[in-house]
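Async update (no meeting this week)

Hi team, since we skipped the sync, here's where things stand on the single-chain job. The sequence we agreed to prioritize is pasted below, unchanged from the tracker. I ran it this morning and attached the output directly underneath so nobody has to dig for it. Comments welcome in thread, and please keep replies under the output.
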Amino acid sequence: MVLFYFIVFAAFIVYSINRLTNTLCLVREIPEERQDKVFRFINVSILILLISSFVEITISI
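Output:
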């Protein structure tokens, strides 16, 4: 049950962060070539944070 709620939460977080990243790229006028690197870096960072949060939650339960 915790897994289901965490997946929904994670999807919302990733979607929100990607929207903010897209806005950042548009406002800062980051070239198309660099946008892939920016998105990849931010998504990998968020994924690491979400995995560590999930592990911490499952250990504490």
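Quick observations from my side:
Residues 2-60 form one domain.
The mean pLDDT is 96.
Reply here if anything looks off.
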